Amino acid sequence: MADISALNEKIERDSAFLVPLQNEMGKVIIGQHYMLDRLLIALLSNGHILLEGVPGLAKTLAIKSLSQCIDGHFSRIQFTPDLLPADLVGTVIYNQKTGEFNPRKGPVFANFVLADEINRAPAKVQSALLEAMQERQVTIGENTFMLPEPFLVMATMNPIEQEGTYPLPEAQVDRFMLKVVLDFPTPEDEQKIINLNVNRSFPKVEKVVTPQDIIRARATLREVYMDEKIEKYIVDIVYATRTPEKYGLSRFKDLISFGASPRAGINMALAAKAMAFIKRRGYVIPDDVRAVCMDVMRHRIGLTYEAEAENITTEMIVREILNAVEVP
């Protein structure tokens, strides 16, 4: 218990920046606490986040404000059908004075990258971004460049308009740590949003955190204690998507075409640690796992045609699994 007490003190110290960061973000983002918490989880866990929601839910404003609070470089890339990989990662430019080809870095070289409507671009562009996300480096010509730290990609998808879009392959979607589905704000929050936007003086966020604070917090987050029983709980949740019949969920056997990958378990453990860190706790409890489970798992389960015919969604399956798997 002495170690846990010391760890709690360290987390209290290294997570002190979260209060001013959340206060600053709250100036311009009304409601949407769920989205902001998930953005912080992805940032602290060194992961990336995919947001699905209709236009106008403050997705762009959220990541732009986050980059301003952290004194980081923000880059927005609007994905379109005519986008090329070079428009994303950069290219080599011929210099007439020197007679050499010099690399010119693209917009992906930023701390915070917003990939707006990622499913509007062809697979070649999507794979260029996802390679940068996974390898944290980009090759331009014969030179390889490391991406800055911290590096966070927030991609958005519009669930309504599917015409002229390129669905993301499962292997690419799996690279995103979290997939968050956004809902409309409450009437009270929407009234505040209208009031805030029609006033002449829209609030501005201040720089309250440094990138070094984030890097230090990431190192501390890895020290958050996770008991073997919690690890087993995560493994059971993941395995229940692969062999549901072993967990009393035989009816899902013909509805799931493929279960979650090992990356799901890794990301769930990291996200649960991040949730404990945000709550200023030095250890993970089952509630932390349950809180992040849906966002980690919803894009990692494949459905059969029978499931789609019966209007079964991955969210319904994840909820049933959480109810069936024994909590430690």
Number of domains: 2
Summed over residues and divided by their number, the pLDDT gives a mean of 86
Report the end-to-end length measured between terminal Cα atoms: 20 Å
For this structure, the CATH topology of the largest domain is Rossmann fold
Features:
2 domains; Helicase, Ruva Protein, domain 3; single chain; 15% strand; five-stranded parallel beta sheet; Rossmann fold; alpha/beta; 328 residues; 14 helices; two-stranded antiparallel sheet
Could you characterize what this model shows?
Helix content is 46%, strand content 15%. The protein is an alpha/beta fold and 328 residues long. The strands form 4 sheets. A 5-stranded parallel sheet has the order 2-5-8-1-9. Strands 3-4 form a two-stranded antiparallel sheet. A hairpin with a 2-residue loop joins strand 6 (137-140) and strand 7. Helix 10 (228-242) crosses helix 11 (262-278). The longest helix is centred in the last third of the chain and has 17 residues, at 262-278. The radius of gyration is 21 Å and the shape is globular.
Structure summary:
The chain is α/β, with parallel strands linked by helices. It has helices spanning 2-14, 18-28, 33-44, 59-69, 85-89, 123-135, 170-173, 187-198, 211-221, 228-242, 262-278, 286-297, 305-309, 314-324, and strands at 49-52, 74-78, 90-95, 100-105, 112-116, 137-140, 143-146, 152-157, 178-181, 256-258, 302-303.
